[in-house]
Design a protein that fits this description.
Layout: H1 32-41, H2 45-57, H3 64-76, H4 80-88, H5 95-106, H6 112-124, H7 133-140, H8 145-158, H9 164-176, H10 180-189, H11 195-207, H12 211-219, H13 226-238, H14 242-254, H15 261-274, H16 277-289, H17 297-309, H18 313-322, H19 328-340, H20 344-356, H21 363-376, H22 379-391, H23 399-411, H24 415-423, H25 431-443, H26 447-459, H27 465-478
Helix pairs in contact: 1-3, 3-4, 3-5, 4-5, 5-6, 5-7, 7-9, 8-9, 9-10, 9-11, 10-11, 11-12, 11-13, 12-13, 13-14, 13-15, 14-15, 15-16, 15-17, 17-18, 17-19, 18-19, 19-20, 19-21, 20-21, 21-22, 21-23, 22-23, 23-24, 23-25, 24-25, 25-26, 25-27, 26-27
The protein binds one DNA strand through helix 3, helix 5, helix 7, helix 9 and helix 11.
DNA sequence: TTAGGGTTAG
């Protein structure tokens, strides 16, 4: 983790390809105040390295505040390696230093285990630095449920639980683990609640299926900011209640709260869910009329998805073509959009273009590609794409991909091949898959196979009303409505 | 006299 910090020197800026000169040149005399100001203002690693070099030359690197600022700046510029290295070189780091390095690691999921181990090191250190509420709230951010529970105990024992940051962080640990009851208990016992804390509780409910409970907390919030609104709107979207999501969005605008990108993502998803094309268009023009010159990939993709789901493929394509730096999710939205509306040729062409540009597909890409093959009856291509998932792209087919294949083979009348595919799957087929196969049996008059599957489904108690309808259709067609009733 | 919470697409 801790790499060797390149000891910066002023001459390091005069290497083979020198970076552009920093905005401020460090002069021969450097006071601690001036250095602190320079560190706070810097925005580039190059400049920070130069300041670091100057601190070393002036012997100011021992100053704990400057050392602290330097370490924090390395981290905030995304150079956790430099930050860690500096920390490792610091003798007897104080609680500020420990907290700062723990916090820097807690900011990115990939470094969470390290944040926790730093906290453990801090406690076991010979110089035993005592954590405070700042340390605790930082380390809690990186915690999964088990160490989180222990730290909750720790916070109670040390009396930090009354701190609103610590309380919120503990609440968040339980929320992330889906333990709504424990989160609510922490919430109820908090002596004071900030907007952030209220939002954390709303998020906890919204993410764990309790959108009405979320709403109850939301209604009790006095001054709501955009995050609070976003959480509530997205909560409705995630629970498949787009009408209420859009209602909340209207109320948010009426309350003069300025929407952010996150708001647009949720609202566009709500429009997509109910096929509200006009509302989607309105959001699109709102985005364009409110200072958003260049669509972000996220918002662009949400627009593509909304237009596709609302059936306006031309609008979707127009937005898609305008997205700068398209990632695979953007490509997927357009490919799947085309495929779902039967524009197989466009979907396949787009896939070919995406590959040509070196974008690596995901399992969603193959949902699109295989559906396109299915709609167009391209059996050979479909088989080949399905095979390539594993062989070429190392993507394990999911049940949905088998569904596409069964649909493709079934429509083409290749029932035996489809049945074999289902029987040899590594996972259990679900009712949707059996339903697809049954529908194909009916379409091609393969009553015997239909009966076989039907019998098996009924015997294993798996048949539901949908499959029963299909079954009765099959039996009606065979003129033998009773056979399957054993 | 230097630090810490909540929301993000297919």
């Amino acid at each position: 983790m801790s790499s060797i910090l390149p000891i910066p020197t002023i001459s390091s800026s005069a290497t083979a390809s020198p970076p552009p000169p920093p905005p401020t040149t460090i002069t021969t005399t450097l006071t601690a105040d001036r250095a602190a100001h320079l560190i706070d203002k810097t925005g580039t690693l190059h400049h920070l390295l130069e300041i670091h070099a100057a601190l070393l030359r002036h012997g100011l690197h021992q100053n704990p505040i400057l050392n602290f600022k330097l370490q924090r700046s390395y981290a905030s510029l995304g150079h956790l390696d430099h930050s860690t290295s500096l920390f490792r070189r610091t003798h007897n780091p104080n609680v500020f230093f420990w907290t700062s390095i723990i916090h820097a690691h807690a900011l990115h999921a990939a470094h969470h285990p390290h944040a926790l181990s730093l906290y453990a090191q801090m406690l076991s250190n010979a110089d035993a630095v005592r954590p405070n509420a700042f340390t605790l709230s930082s380390v809690l951010k990186s915690c999964p449920i088990e160490p989180g529970r222990a730290l909750h105990g720790h916070a109670l024992k040390m009396g930090f639980i009354c701190d609103v940051y610590v309380g919120t962080a503990v609440l968040d640990v339980y929320a992330r683990a889906g333990d709504v009851v424990a989160a609510r208990k922490v919430f109820d016992e908090m002596p004071e609640r900030s907007l952030v804390c209220l939002t954390a509780m709303i998020t906890c409910y919204a993410k764990n299926g309790g959108v009405d409970e979320a709403r109850a907390v939301f209604d009790g919030v006095g001054e709501r900011d955009v995050v609070c609104w976003n959480v509530m709107i997205d909560g409705y979207v995630q629970r498949g209640r787009p009408g209420e999501a859009l209602g909340m969005f209207r109320r948010m605008l009426a309350a003069k709260v300025r929407p952010t990108e996150v708001t647009f993502l949720a609202v566009l998803s709500a429009c997509a869910q109910i096929g509200a094309l006009e509302c989607g268009r309105w959001v699109h023009s709102y985005i364009e009329n409110n200072g958003v010159r260049l669509l972000s990939v996220h918002v662009g993709t949400a627009l593509v998805d909304m237009y596709c789901k609302c059936g306006s493929l031309e609008d979707a394509r127009m937005v898609f073509d305008g997205i700068k730096g398209k990632d695979v999710v953007a490509w997927n939205s357009m490919i799947v959009g085309y495929a779902m509306h039967g524009f197989s040729k466009d979907a396949m062409e787009l896939f070919a273009r995406m590959r040509k540009l070196g974008v690596w597909p995901t399992n969603i890409t193959f949902i699109g590609v295989l559906s396109a093959c299915s709609h167009a009856g391209l059996v050979t291509e479909g088989r080949s794409f399905f095979k390539s998932m594993k062989d070429e792209y190392q993507i394990e087919p999911k049940i949905e991909h088998y569904g596409c294949m069964v649909d493709l083979l079934g429509r083409a009348g290749l029932l035996d091949e489809a049945y074999e595919l289902v029987k040899n799957m590594e996972m259990d087929p679900d009712l949707v898959l059996w339903g697809t196969l049954l529908a194909a049996c009916r379409l091609h008059g393969r009553y015997e196979m239909g009966e076989q599957i039907a019998e098996w489904l009924v015997c294993s108690g798996l048949a539901n009303s949908g499959t029963c309808t299909l079954l009765s259709n099959i039996y009606a067609a065979t003129g033998n409505g009773m056979v399957w009733r054993k």
